[in-house]
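Here is one chain, start to finish.
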Amino acid sequence: MNLIESKTTSFPLSDSPITVGIIGGGIAGSTIALRLAEQGINVQLFEEGKSLVNGPPICHLHAGGNLYREISDQQCVTLLKQSIDTLRVYQHTSNIRPTVIAIPHNDAGDPHDLLPRLALLQQTYQTLVANDPKNKVLGEPNDYFKLYQRSDVERLALQDNPQHPLTPDQWMIPVAKSINLDQFKYPLVMVQEYGLSVFRIAATLTLALNKLPQCHVNTSAKVTALAESEQGTGWQVSYQDATNHRHQLHVDYLVNAGGYRTGTIDDLAHIPRQRMVEFKAAYVTHWAQCDAQWPEVIFHGERGTPNGMAQLTPYPDGFFQLHGMTQDITLFENGLVSSDANSAQPQLDPSFKTKLQQHWSQQEIEQRTQRAINHMAQFVDKFEQATVGGKPLFGAQQIPGDDPTLRAADVSYSHQRYARSEIVKASSALSVADAIIDQLATLHLITKPVPQTRENEFPVAQQLSLDEIVSCAEQLAVERGFPMSLARPIGH
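Its structure:
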């Protein structure tokens, strides 16, 4: 008996297994499809694009939410737990390097204000590892964060950059050698926040779903109409394929995982919902003169002002992804919009819709990327040598409700057989998948599953090797017009 058959038969279903329809093949929809199909549940996945997980510029795991000073401690703990689960399932998708958090003098924040949260997260991580050693995916709990006073940074600045940094101090050396120490408040913080590769996540999901006969992936499939059955026993899904042929099929349960277009699907289903959508972009740069492996570095700043946060995300071969949380760089004027009484879908300006269809002018690519470089060069002066490394990574992010600072969210329900994925961060996708499994069992559409480890829930995905994932990820990067280096693990 092969592994798929073994897994399918280990999860008892009714004599007539249900079919779950999932609209949207982003990180949420594809993860839900994988979770269900790995358990033997029939899935129909509809994705309007040509491939899976081709949305917002995922680059950071958010294992504790330390990029965001404004969110609650509870959101941070939730993100930590979700990130650990994500790394256990998507085992070859992390870029393993720490993140440095620095607070400039021109920012109102105090580094000491970060310490209670960091201590809470470290203790939470310690407890999670004590309960299950497989949770130790972010290094040793005692190393979850480390503080650096100015004297520590001055000492490290005198050392040579290591070729293959291993310890926190070794990772800090290129930062210590490159920043103006007079610009910052101390201590600086290093935390075990890893990177997350959108291309290797896309590759993992593509490869795993291709191996699962329970999941039928419909790419280039635009859902055009939804009709709930009169008996409330499911939904009729109408969609159009790449050749403009129209199709209809019945599903017993429907999942709206439309990402920033989730409101559009709500409208088709005639289900109201309040939400926000924000368009953002990150910029691909190449620093040819870089002679060190860098950690990620976050220079805190007030969002939306000229001094907004600057985020330096490293990739192999001298490529860096930049965020600058100003309206001239990552944020856009009128880029945050809300739904209204007429539609559950917030309406972005047509210029953003043009960008979302991948139509950026070369002038705007160069202009905004150069602004990002200049913004980073305030803190790392040699970064002014960097050049445009490719087109921007961009997308629109949905935020349920009316709180733009919300970061930890998962799923909501409006009908018995209609679930809505409302993740803000990629690491929340597994929580949505778990909740939908529980809902299917509550509705007696499936038998309640026997508790399993994360690894045993995803046997097909766990079989995938690093080499085959990287190979597929590189191909996806090239197909989407990005440097192949963005698909590779750091140090690979």
